[in-house]
């Protein structure tokens, strides 16, 4: 039997985690785990596709592998969502903050490959959030959060185990991702 594998994509807000995850689905048919959140939907997001949008009480009923608070909202990944993705393919991807990535490394060990996305200049993150049309209030709240500062750097066990991708140039990032996926599929 092919062993189930999990590509955990982490890094700072605006570093390109969701962009990478969507590209991997398009290029390599790698299904994405849909996670749960209590934050409000952004203008282009769809319930059940980008996230399962939850209330505090509906989130409490999920069978969560891990959960975090990020910039004032709750996020969590469920056993059900992981199994739904694994039913489609043995290699799946999941976008989480660095605390979640750490939990996945501890829980799933060698089944996990962690990609840590970063940029050379942190100011690029702010312009990307503006370009994404996040509201000025949401951006300010996020930039002031402890989670934002924590996820700028890769630290602890993630430092030794994550593959670091400097996502300044999207063409270069695509080449790096292609190499990683080819290695994983060998
Ligand atoms: N290499 C790149 N160069 C320029 N813009 C990029 C690059 N990669 C992603 N972007 C853009 O930056 C914005 C943020 O990207 P994305 O939503 O993928 O980030 P994220 O890490 O998932 O953020 P968050 O954690 O806040 O959800 C998007 O508008 C995306 O199109
Ligand atoms: N640990 C977890 N982190 C998650 C999960 N779902 C998303 N995230 C991370 O939260 C922040 C904010 O996301 P945003 O969509 O509001 O910009 C980001 O770092 C996501 O990767 C989860 O289930 N667990």
Report on the structure:
It is a single chain. This protein has 186 residues and is α/β, with parallel strands linked by helices. It has one domain: Rossmann fold (3-Layer(aba) Sandwich). It is 43% helix and 22% strand. The chain has nine helices and eight strands. A four-stranded parallel β-sheet has the order 6-1-7-8, sandwiched between helices. The mean pLDDT is 95. It binds adenosine-5'-triphosphate and ligand LQESDW3C. Residues 11, 13-19, 128, 131-132, 167, 170, 173 line the site of adenosine-5'-triphosphate.
Shape: globular
The biggest beta sheet is recorded as: 4 strands, parallel
**Mean pLDDT metric:** 95
What value does the Rg take, in angstroms? 16 Å
Number-wise, the strands total: 8
Query: Helical proportion?
Result: 40-55%
Q: Could you name the CATH homologous superfamily?
A: P-loop containing nucleotide triphosphate hydrolases
N-C termini distance: 15 Å
Give the name of the CATH architecture: 3-Layer(aba) Sandwich
> How much of the residues is beta strand, in percent?
15-25%
Counted by DSSP, the helix tally is 9
Which spans of ≥5 residues are poorly predicted at pLDDT below 50?
none
Number of domains: 1
Named CATH topology: Rossmann fold
CATH class: Alpha Beta
Strand order of the largest sheet: 6-1-7-8
Tell me the series of helices and strands, N- to C-terminal: EHEEHEEHEHEHHHHEH
- Unique ligands: adenosine-5'-triphosphate, ligand LQESDW3C
What would you call the structural class?
alpha/beta
